[in-house]
Amino acid sequence: MIPPGNGNRASDPATIAPGPGRGADAGAIVGRMNTELDPVAVTARLTAAMRAHESAREDRLFADPLAAVLAGDEGRDAMDRLGMRDNPTIPVRTHYVDETLTAIDGLGQVVLVAAGMDTRAYRLDLPGDAYELDRPELLELKDHLLEGALPRCARHPVGVDLTTDWTDPLTAAGFDAASPAIWVVEGVLQYLPEDDVHRLLDRVTALAVPGSHLITDAVGRSLLEFPALRPMLEALAANGMRWVFGTDEPERLLEPRGWVPEITRISEYGGALGRWPYPEAAQGYLVHAVKPSRTAPGTVRPA
User: Fold this and answer.
1) For residue 226, pLDDT beyond 90
2) Where in the chain is CATH 3.40.50.150?
3) By CB neighbour count within 10 A (0-12 exposed, 13-18 middle, 19+ buried), where does 294 fall?
4) Which CATH architecture has domain 89-300?
5) Which of 63, 75, 76, 124 could cross-link to 45 by cystine, CB 3.0-4.6 Å?
6) pLDDT digits 0-9 by tens, 120-174
7) Could you tell me which residues come within 8 angstroms of residue 117 by beta carbon, excluding any fewer than 6 positions away?
């Protein structure tokens, strides 16, 4: 695990104010998104709203100046409707992924699976090329909202259906399947049926050559079954964001596929940041896994 740091490795990127006509155009895209995309993708604006709220805190764990425009009124309204304004899960998870990702040296490509409204290509110093996989309409909306913003690396949006085989679109976008990469699968597994979780990890593993890294997270069954969290889970489900998959043994998802995982309880990591109010009985997991190789092209910098 990368010890908690200040979560602010990159210099501050510019913020973006909505330009003339942007709201109307975005509304049309959102309309298509809400009718054509599943609820997993719709949560992207909610997640952006929570990152924007964290960024406004004096004791913020990271700075994401682009999150507010990506959230829009839809994301902010969802955050307030669901009572998630001060929920620490997204800030703690974002900090972990930022710190782990930026501590890996020697690899030239990053793949963000189910990237949603992720802004790491704009706010972190990522290596070489960043490939963002998600539904085409969601990436279209994101590109529209971020019009005028310059990424800090070579960013490649790749519109795909993540439930299908997306190997060809990814390689057509320039991904080098013969070279190791950093794979980020963040905040998506809990929304998928178990069979789809396995299919997604199989696709990532098939494209991850030795020396690759995987950063992901998992909700524990203990959390899904914890009585005190039932109102939050029911509210998410009522808004089309049902959490269906959980495991308290994430290593069993990865070790049989050849990954060597290092697993950290989110309560431990969030507690070290002073941001975890929930009991130990309700657990989630933060995971950094490596596909071993003798040459180990990707190394982790000391924190």
Assistant:
1) no
2) 89-300
3) exposed
4) 3-Layer(aba) Sandwich (3.40)
5) 75
6) 999 999 989 999 999 999 999 999 999 999 999 999 999 999 989 999 999 999 9
7) 44, 45, 47, 48, 67, 70, 71, 138, 142
